[in-house]
Amino acid sequence: MVRYLPRSAWRARPPNGGPGTLTPSRVQGAVIHWPGTGTTTGIHSQAAVASALRGWQKFHMDDRGWSDIAYQVAVDQAGRAWALRGLRVQSGANGNADLNERYGAILLVLVTGEQPTAAMKATTRGVIADFRRIFPRGTAIRPHSAVRPDGTDCPGPAARAAIARGDFTPTSEDVMTPAQMQELKNFIEARSQAYALWVHKALRRDLSAVVQAYALDIKKYEAQTDAADAQRAAVAVWAMAPDDFDPKPTPEPGSEPDPETEPYLLLPDPDPMPTVATTAEAAPDTAPEESAPDAEPDADGSAPADTAPVAAGQPESGADPEPNPAPQQ
Ligand SMILES: [Zn+2]
């Protein structure tokens, strides 16, 4: 939203009647004008602009017999926006009644030989963004010379070139208010943070299960090979296979490692997330359910069954299992 200097800032006379407001469904866009005075003396200070606006209003009302100054809004080289008729009221500037119903009218306080300043361009983009909020279908930005049937040099070559370059076309910064921009930024940050946290938790859950399953496998293998019976050790490892893995050898009873007494079977605490604590939810996953001595992995065996890398790593039945890799510290 552009801040507009009110009509009182240029000591405007009240309008003498007027054409009323534009019909949004008819509005196609905004037409850009300049004063067309032919002077090369810039109209830059606030007092000079206010005086010029009073002069054009007097000319339009007293000499032309119009209801008010012809334009809706003026923008000067300092980037000030001035309320004239206002964006909702039909202008008298475009050349005929049809054009005045189809287009708004923005006056650039620009004289012959001047280029529009960056401030004038930025404010004009803001004014056009405001115009588009009121008239969503009125997206065209046209120089007066492009629409007036009788021809005109308005708004001069510099403004015409600026229109062609898109210098007056609103960007996302012009369309959004600072509050809306901040709201969008907050939304994106919150969603990104929540997603990062979700990934963090999911990865940690999966990784914990994989590491735990491998470490228990290795401990079982070592325990069994201590008895110099690699075949029985393999049977114990196969006991970790998912429930639906068929055929599954019957596990041999044997002493199982207890993760509570083997701290290296548990994952170290992760690096803390910068904003949200994850240990409260992640901690239960580190308590291994496989610590039951009978190693019956059915009802409570969902954790190893969910760990796809372990299940997928199992060779086909009858093949010799690969030696387990050394546990990573
Ligand atoms: Zn014009």
Tell me about this structure.
The chain is built from eleven helices and six strands. A six-stranded mixed β-sheet has the order 1-4-3-5-2-6. By secondary structure, it is an alpha/beta fold. The two termini are 59 Å apart. The radius of gyration is 38 Å and the shape is rod-shaped. Helix 7 packs antiparallel against helix 8. It folds into two domains: 172 residues, Peptidoglycan recognition protein-like (Lysozyme-like, 3-Layer(aba) Sandwich); 133 residues, no CATH class. The protein binds zinc ion. Zinc ion (ZN) binds next to loops.
Gist?
This protein is α/β, with parallel strands linked by helices.
Topology, element by element:
Elements: E1 4-5, E2 29-33, H1 46-63, E3 73-75, E4 81-83, H2 97-102, E5 103-108, H3 118-134, E6 140-143, H4 144-147, H5 156-165, H6 172-175, H7 178-226, H8 230-238, H9 279-282, H10 302-306, H11 308-312
Parallel strand pairs: 1-4, 2-5, 2-6, 3-5
Antiparallel strand pairs: 3-4
Bound molecules: zinc ion.
The site of zinc ion (ZN) has 5 residues, from loops.
